[in-house]
Every structure is written in C-alpha cells, then in structure tokens.
Amino acid sequence: MSVRALLICLLLLIRPTPGLAEACGAEIPCPLGDRSYHVRLPDGWDGKTALPVLLHFHGWGRQGDLIVKHRRIAGHTRRRGVLLVAPNGLGRTWDFWRAGGRDVTFARAVLEDVAARFPVDPERIYVSGYSYGAAMAWRFACEAGAGVVALLAISGKLPQDADCPEAPGEVRQVYGFADDVMRFPYGPEGDVTHPVALWREVYRCGAAERLGDWQAVDWLVLERLRWDCPEGRVTLDLHPGGHFIPHGWIGWQLDQLMGRAPGYP
Fold first, then answer.
1. 265: in domain
2. Cβ count near 49 (within 10 Å)
C-alpha cells in the first residue's frame, strides 16, 4: 500500500487523539515503540487545518532534535504551513545501504503515528534528507515512494544501479561540485547529470532542459536542469560549493511544489 493510500485509510479510520499532539514536540521526542521522532508545527497553525508533511532524515551523527531547530530546514517549513517530522536514526545513522532495511519500515510507522497525532494532508507528503539522510530519503523513496509528492535530496544519494520498485511523483536533487564528504558523482566523460541517472531511467526521461541560474541568497548561485518525463519529473540543482544545505533551497522547493512564488526565508 502506498504512503498516500495508507494515510487516507488512517484518516478515515481514526481521528487525531486529543491531547496526544501536545505530548511531544520540538524539544520532547514522540515515542514510537523503542524509538522516537521529533516534530515542528508551523507558525500560526489553527489546530484543525490538515497539514502538509515534510519527513526529513538527519545526517550522520545527528538526531531529529537538531532538524526541528535548523534554520535551513525548520526555518522554512514553519513559515509555509508545513509539519516537519524528523525521525531519530539508531546510532545516529541510517540503514540505507541495502534494500529491506529496518529504517524504511520505521519511517512508514512514523508517518502512521504522525497521522494519529495530527490532521495531515495525504496529498502533500514530501520526503527529504541531507548527506547520509539524503541517501536514506532515496531508500525510502525507492521502497515506499508511491504516494510521496516529491523527494528533496541534499548532498547525498544511493548508487545509480540501486533497485527502485517504487518512486515519488518527482525528484529534486541538489549537489555541490566541491563536496568532499559524499563526493560529487560525475558520470562517464565528466557527465554532471549523473547524480540523478537512476531516476531519469525510472521515469524514462529524455534530454534535459537547462533552466539557467537561480539563487535564493546573494552568495550562492545554482544552475538548474530539469527533465519532464513520461513517468515523472527530475530537477537537478548544481552549485560550486561543498557539503552543506544551501540557504533557501528547501523553502524554494516547497514553494514551487505548493504552487507559490519562491521566497526567502
């Protein structure tokens, strides 16, 4: 069952439990069996309106409590009416190297638990991650991506020969040429589109459209390539920097995905 179908079924079968949402938040993790996750509600939420969800996987050595306070992540979701959900990886990392690992199952359970605590919009589920978390977001999209609107991956990926039986509606990837942690994955003959080769094959893409440069802040210019494909859309943003979350990147993607003019912050 897809993530969207699962959440729709949950919404039909259960209502968010009064008081349960207040039991956890940015500082207090939401318990889930022997594991947990963090949430950050958007500013000014009325307590009733169904919320878009951004499920974000933290980088190596981190936990969800950092994510829900991170200016380049939570700083954008809270201004856009999006519920930020940040699972905690065991040992501060993720099991993404092989198919069928524990963390895809855990992340699906997190989304189910979130739907029991908050009114969520099953038509607007986004998945993101940074570094090792980006690779974990890829893994989740590959195995549970049906029903996910978009994958937003930052400075990380899976091997391009990974098996992806499922896929999100679209993929948005950003990578820096000077990344010295999860090094930029050039393809044959220096092909700079290689970071999304897997998804271009999954979506049966043709040639890229070069959309030119864009920037959310003065100090970082990104070049955008886009593939509008028979089975989905792929966007690749490239920049000259290293291993970091570009200022404004998550906010711009969410704005565009939700049909708004991109803004910063």
1. no
2. 10
- Cβ atoms of 153 and 134 closer than 8 Å: yes
- Classify residue 263: in a domain, yes or no: no
Alpha-carbon distance of 3 to 144, in angstroms, equals 7
Q: Taking each helix axis from N to C terminus, what angle separates 102-117 and 132-144, rounded to the nearest 10 degrees?
A: 80
**Domain around 54:** 3-257
Residue 25: CB atoms within 10 A of its CB come to: 14
**Pure H helices in 88-208:** 102-117, 132-144, 197-202
Full pLDDT tens readout for the chain, 265 residues: 666 666 665 454 455 555 555 579 878 999 999 999 999 999 999 999 999 999 999 999 999 999 999 999 999 999 999 999 999 999 999 999 999 999 999 999 999 999 999 999 999 999 999 999 999 999 999 999 999 999 999 999 999 999 999 999 999 999 999 999 999 999 999 999 999 999 999 999 999 999 999 999 999 999 999 999 999 999 999 999 999 999 999 999 999 999 999 999 9
- Based on the structure, what is the number of domains in the chain? 1
Residues 45, 81 contacting (CB under 8 angstroms): yes
